[in-house]
Write a structure and sequence with these properties.
With 431 residues, the protein is an alpha/beta fold. It contains 14 helices and 14 strands.
């Protein structure tokens, strides 16, 4: 983790902070920030935005029209710029602490988590540039060498697509690859085979927010069967597993989960996921229950936690407080890490450290509204997370992250490692 480097001398003082409006992958305005140091070294970061968001996330500041970011940018170019000018960019904790204290709210709602995060990440990039190090090495040091297994969202549903699928993401997981480069190749091969399969069936092959196809399939099982058939056609069936993100909070109404014609009370959801795990090579389920149903989550974890990775996204929202509660109550066994859910790099790294120390898996994640910024690729390697969610091998906002990871793997050379099946509870002790 990047800590104070004042003992080794200042890296470089911040002389300029500038925010601008750019557009994300959905065509919505978002924040981009440049941080410049006295040497001329600089860093740039763009902030993503989610569609399926947890109630407990840090607050993204939007204008009254619900889209614009002029207020957030005014905060960057005014109050925040004044507060950061003169700080040592190499002291990430001090920089982030200044941002948090300046905002003064528990959810970053005054200045906006989007304004704060842009400055936090741009500061880290500027410090890395000044130190002459790649971002992953600046954050993670010499131990940063683990490439992540990609969880590729090849079929989009729910809030990510306009189709009949109520569950949100169906992901192909090339865990049987030997290297990250091979994993991306396998994922792309399955993706293209899936496109051909859907075309043959007369189904739409347009893509959703995260680059996956959005066909009007009738059920989750149909979507899973299509992905596995595509893997078979591509000759990669033995090299892939499946992951799901049902985003269960989106289908939780009146005390039951209502999706695809089913009405399942909480006690029956564990049976539903267990049945899918029996029938399919399922390794991970993200947000299988609603975000505030803690007792149900504990029951699910007791029943399936030794078989499946149970990932808290809306449940934990990259929050140390909520993750601590999960650890204490035995809830879930992995956390999804989204930098804009918490709003600073320091807090993100603290969440990763707590998860690791508690035996929880870590999945670094994009958002559905993305940019070409590749920070999360470096973050995945810097933290040794072992897994990344950043969409299908489609759309440049998603592919940019995969391409950055390919560059990092090449740069690491023989030091690079790929965890493969070992990243998941279902296979960790059986191979």
């Amino acid at each position: 983790m990047v800590r104070s480097r004042q003992g080794d001398g200042a890296i470089g003082r911040i002389v300029r902070v500038h925010g601008r409006q750019i557009f994300d992958s959905r065509g919505n305005p978002t924040v981009e920030v440049d941080v410049e140091l006295e040497s001329g070294a600089g860093g740039r970061a763009a902030v993503p935005s989610g569609a399926s968001t947890g109630r407990f996330e840090a607050v993204e500041l939007r204008d009254p029209d619900g889209r614009g970011v002029t207020h957030a940018l005014a905060n960057v170019n005014g109050e925040i710029a004044d507060a950061l000018r003169g700080l040592d960019a190499g002291d990430q904790e001090a920089l982030d602490r200044r941002l948090i204290e300046l905002d003064g709210t528990p959810n970053k709602g005054r200045l906006g988590a989007n304004a704060i995060l842009g400055c936090s990440l741009a500061g880290a990039k500027a410090a890395a540039a000044e130190a002459g190090k790649p971002l992953y090495a600046w954050i993670g040091g010499g131990e940063a060498h683990v490439l992540p297994v990609p969880l590729m969202n090849v079929v989009n549903g729910g809030a990510h697509a306009q189709n009949a699928l109520d569950l949100q993401e169906f992901m192909v997981v090339p865990a049987g690859a030997e290297t990250f480069a091979e994993a991306v190749r396998i994922g792309a091969a399955v993706f293209h085979a899936l496109k051909a399969l859907l075309h043959e069936r007369g189904l739409a092959t347009g893509v959703g927010d995260e680059g996956g196809f959005a066909p009007d399939l009738g059920s989750s099982e149909e979507a899973i069967d299509a992905v596995l058939e595509a893997a078979e056609r591509a000759g990669e069936r033995e090299h892939v597993a499946l992951a799901l993100d049902p985003a269960a909070s989106e289908v939780w109404r009146d005390g039951a989960y209502r999706f695809e014609g089913r009405v399942l009370p909480p006690g029956e959801m564990a049976g539903f996921w267990g049945e899918l795990a029996d029938r399919y090579p399922l390794v991970s389920v993200e947000d299988p229950l609603a975000e505030d149903e803690w007792s149900d989550w504990r029951m699910l974890t007791d029943q399936l936690g030794d078989r499946l990775q149970l990932v808290g996204d809306d449940l934990f929202v990259t929050s140390l407080q909520r993750l601590r509660r999960g650890v204490e109550e035995g809830v879930a066994n992995a956390i999804l890490i989204k930098v804009n859910q918490i709003g600073t790099l320091t807090e993100t790294l603290e969440a990763v450290e707590l998860a690791r120390a508690s035996g929880y898996g870590v999945v670094i994640s994009h958002r559905s509204g993305e940019t070409e910024d590749t920070t999360i690729a470096d973050l995945a390697v810097a933290t040794g997370a072992g897994q990344i969610k950043t969409g299908a091998p489609s759309r440049t906002d998603r592919v940019a992250k995969y391409n950055q990871l390919l560059r990092i793997e090449e740069e690491l050379g023989p030091r690079a490692t790929y965890p493969g099946w070992e990243a998941f509870p279902r296979f960790r002790h059986s191979r």
